[in-house]
Every structure is written in structure tokens, then in C-alpha cells.
Amino acid sequence: MHSTLTRRVVTAFIALLLGHFGFVQPLQAAKQIEWETLQPKLAPIESPITRLTPDQRIDLETVFWVHEMSEEEKLKDTNEQAVELARDYEKNLQNAGLDVERLVREFRIWRKARADRRKVVNQSLNDQDIRMAGYLLPLSFSEKGETEFLLVPYFGACVH
Predict the structure, then answer these.
(1) Other residues' Cβ atoms within 10 Å of the Cβ of residue 59
(2) Cα separation, 4 vs 9, whole angstroms
(3) What are the two backbone dihedrals, phi and then psi, of residue 32, each rounded to the nearest 5 degrees?
(4) Residue 136: its pLDDT value, please?
(5) What is the C-alpha to C-alpha distance for residues 106 and 131, in angstroms, rounded to an integer?
(6) Looking at residue 106, what is its pLDDT?
(7) Going residue by residue through the chain (160 aa), what tens digit of pLDDT does each one get?
(8) Which residue in 28, 90, 32 sits closest to 59, CA to CA?
(9) How far apart are CA 69 and CA 80, in angstroms?
(10) Within 10 A of 82 (CB to CB), how many other CB atoms are there?
(11) What is the pLDDT of residue 12?
(12) How far apart are the first and last CA of the chain?
């Protein structure tokens, strides 16, 4: 009994010394976060279509979609109707006094900015122990079990 107590005291003393001189970092509780915390707080970017009517928004999105097609895609039979509708929608938008080329340009810039924002992460979480609720979605397996996985916010979330 005496040797067990001595061994515990010596072990505790060594751990205390190692921690004091920086060899062992003390354990800290993981910070509990929500999924929204993963993205930094950014100022909103206004969509160029917010000033349009709902019908004009749909028309502009069709015009934009056709503008983004290659000339080869526009010639396909499957896209013939969309290309024709886009021409009509573009005329309607111009008749309403809208600069369609400018709107298409602004919409392209806005969509790219939105896509770029999806890649931004909250750098303030780097090198921190965090804890967050979620479900593991296995991606690859081995004899030892899952070797690669995603943490997803809810059951049933998929990678597709």
C-alpha cells in the first residue's frame, strides 16, 4: 500500500513538473460550437435581381443561363426552345427599360462572389479544440473500419 501511494505521488509530481516546464499541455475543455460558427460573419452582398419583379427575375435567370452556354450548346435541339425564349425575355426586359447586358454582367459577378464565399472558413477556429453535433458519413473503409469520413449536420445528409 505504501509503495502504491508513493508511486502515485511521484507520478503526480513528475506530471506537475512536466506541465510547469511546458512539456505537457494541460487539457482544456473543447469549445462547443454550432454549424453556423464554421463560416465567418460577412457583410451581405446584394443580388442585382432584387430590384426586379418576380417575373423579370425568372426571365433574367433564363437569359443568363443562355448567355453562359457555348455556341455549340445553343445549337443543340434540346436547347432550341430555351434560346428562343431567352431572346423573347431579353426583348421584354429591354422594353421595360432595363440594361440586360449590365444585369447579366452584375448577376455573373454576384454568383461568383456567392460561390467564393462558400469556400471561406472561420480562421479563428484554427488550432482550437472544438465540439459540435453531427453525424459521421463514411467515405472509405478498411479492415480496421472507416478510414475517411465527413461530419454532416443531420442524419441523411449526402455528398451528392
Answers:
(1) 23
(2) 9
(3) -80, 125
(4) 83
(5) 40
(6) 94
(7) 555 556 665 566 566 555 555 555 556 688 898 988 888 888 989 998 899 999 999 999 999 999 999 999 999 999 999 999 999 999 999 999 999 999 999 999 999 999 998 888 889 889 888 898 988 888 887 887 777 888 888 887 776 6
(8) 90
(9) 12
(10) 17
(11) 60
(12) 61
Q: How far apart are CA 88 and CA 34, in angstroms?
A: 46
Q: Which residue has the cell 479492415?
A: 143
CA distance linking residue 160 with residue 152, whole number of Å: 13
Q: Are 110 and 45 in contact (CB under 8 A)?
A: yes
- CA dist 91 and 97 (Å) reads 10
How many Å apart are CA 36 and CA 33, to the nearest integer?
8
CA 131, distance to chain mean position in Å, is 19
Q: Which three cell numbers stand for residue 159?
A: 455528398
- The pLDDT value recorded for residue 111 is 93
- Selection from 96, 97, 103 nearest residue 63 by Cα: 103
